[in-house]
Amino acid sequence: MGTRIHFPRLNKRLCERLFAAHQHCVTVDGVLRRTQWTGAPSCIALVGEIDQVITELYNLAERAFAPEAAAAAATSPDDARAELAHDEYVADIERIEREEKEE
User: Fold this and answer.
1) What's the whole-model pTM score?
2) What is residue 35's three-state secondary structure?
3) What is the DSSP track for 32-73?
4) Residues near 95 by beta carbon (within 8 Å), at least 6 away in sequence
5) What whole-number distance in Å separates Cα of residue 62 and Cα of residue 46?
6) Can you tell me the distance from the alpha carbon of 64 to that of 15, in angstroms, rounded to the nearest whole number?
7) Residues 6+ apart with CB under 8 A from 7
8) Per residue of the chain (103 residues), what is the pLDDT tens digit?
9) CB 8 within 8 A of CB 47
10) CA 88 to CA 23: how far, in whole Å?
């Protein structure tokens, strides 16, 4: 038999960093959607793919360090609640727009 590969585990700090990376992806996506740059649609697709991997890793780890949250998770997208960071996301977009107007 071959040797079994043991992959590294994600600890809570790495999961927090994954969540922060997800937040950055959401912010970048929002900025790209508001720009007139012709390369924006391609970058939006790339950021979406990156965010999907980040989300899958986070969701796998979330079951381990927050079992009560995983148990309460929505079973379908229609049952899911809005993302908690939406207010932060909107505040970031508004801040960026204000900075652009000031320049």
Assistant:
1) 0.58
2) coil
3) HHT---TTHHHHHHHHHHHHHHHHHHHHHHHHHH-HHHHHTS
4) none
5) 24
6) 11
7) none
8) 678 888 777 777 888 888 889 999 999 999 999 999 999 999 999 999 999 998 888 888 777 766 665 555 555 555 555 554 555 666 666 777 787 777 6
9) no
10) 9
